[in-house]
C-alpha cells in the first residue's frame, strides 16, 4: 500500500495506476468517502491511456485518523504532498462535491503557482460557498448542516445508509429504484473513516468560501452539475463558480443527481474525456 507522510506527520493513502510517462489525472473524493469512489473513472481513464491517481483525505478511508486538520487548508496541503511526492506535472484535477472544493483550493494555492496544473474539473462541487450568510443570502441555512452533525453523532452507521438511499443519488425520487450495491459501497467507504474527521468536515465543506480561489484560477476549467442535485443545490453553486473562474465551461445535466459519477458514469465519463483531450 502506498502512503506519503505530510509535514505534520499524517499518513495519506493514495492509488497510482498506469504508466508513469502517461498524462496524469488526479481525483479528489467527496465527503465522507474515499479514493474508492473514483474506481469507475480511474478504470475508464486508465483504459484511455492516462495515469490515474486518487488519495484518501486525512481521516477518511485508509489515511490516518488524526484528531485535527480537517479543514480546506490541510486538505489542499495533503493533496500537494501526494503531488510533490510523485512529482506530478501537467495534471488534470477532478474533484466531486467536497473534493471539488479541495481541488479548487489546491489548484489556487499550490498547483497553479507551482506550474503543475493543466486543467480543473469540479463536479457537483461545493464552491463558491454553501452556507447562508449576509454575504451569501441564497445559501443553505446553518440548521441544515447542524442536522447532518446531529445525525452523524447520533447513529453514524444508520445515517450512512439513509443518506445514499435518499438524496445523494436521488433514489428518493418517484420511480427511482435504489441500487443496493451502490448504497452498500457508500456505507462501506463512510464507515472506513473517522467520525471525528467526518464531523469536522461538515464545517469545512459548508462554511469555506472559495470565491477568492476561483478568481485566482486561470487554467481551463470544467464545471459540471446535475439539476436534481439535492446535496449541493445548483442555483448557488455551479453557475456562480463558472462565472468566477477565468476560463471555464459549464455543463448542466437535466435530472442528474449529486452522485451522477456513479449513476450516470456512462454519460459523464466520455464528456470528461472530451474536455481533457480538447
TrEMBL record:
Domain AB hydrolase-1: 23-261
Protein name: Non-heme chloroperoxidase
Species of provenance: Labrys miyagiensis
Name of the gene encoding the protein in the UniProt record: cpo
Amino acid at each position: 500500500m502506498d502512503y506519503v507522510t505530510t509535514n505534520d506527520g499524517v499518513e495519506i493513502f493514495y492509488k497510482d495506476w498506469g504508466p508513469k510517462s502517461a498524462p496524469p489525472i488526479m481525483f479528489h473524493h467527496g465527503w465522507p468517502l474515499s479514493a474508492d469512489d473514483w474506481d469507475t473513472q480511474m478504470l475508464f481513464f486508465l483504459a484511455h491511456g492516462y495515469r490515474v491517481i486518487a488519495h484518501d483525505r486525512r481521516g477518511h478511508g485508509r489515511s490516518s485518523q488524526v484528531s485535527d486538520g480537517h479543514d480546506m487548508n490541510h486538505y489542499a496541503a495533503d493533496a500537494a504532498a501526494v503531488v510533490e511526492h510523485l512529482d506530478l506535472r501537467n495534471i488534470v484535477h477532478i474533484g466531486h462535491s467536497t473534493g471539488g472544493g479541495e481541488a479548487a483550493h489546491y489548484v489556487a494555492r499550490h498547483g497553479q503557482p507551482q506550474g503543475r496544473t493543466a486543467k480543473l474539473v469540479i463536479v457537483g462541487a461545493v464552491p463558491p460557498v454553501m452556507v447562508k450568510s449576509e454575504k451569501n443570502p441564497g445559501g443553505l441555512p446553518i440548521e441544515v448542516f447542524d442536522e447532518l452533525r446531529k445525525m452523524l453523532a447520533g447513529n453514524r452507521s444508520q445515517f450512512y445508509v439513509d443518506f445514499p438511499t435518499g438524496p445523494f443519488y436521488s433514489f428518493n425520487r418517484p420511480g427511482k429504484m435504489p441500487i443496493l450495491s451502490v448504497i452498500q459501497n457508500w456505507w462501506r467507504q463512510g464507515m472506513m473513516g473517522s467520525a471525528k474527521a467526518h464531523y469536522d468536515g461538515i464545517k469545512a465543506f459548508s462554511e469555506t468560501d472559495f470565491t477568492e480561489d476561483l478568481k485566482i484560477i486561470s487554467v481551463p476549467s470544467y464545471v459540471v452539475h446535475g439539476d436534481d442535485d439535492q446535496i449541493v443545490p445548483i442555483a448557488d453553486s455551479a453557475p456562480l463558480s463558472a462565472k468566477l473562474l477565468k476560463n471555464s465551461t459549464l455543463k448542466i445535466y437535466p435530472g442528474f443527481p449529486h452522485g451522477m459519477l456513479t449513476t450516470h458514469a456512462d454519460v459523464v465519463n466520455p464528456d470528461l474525456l472530451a474536455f481533457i483531450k480538447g
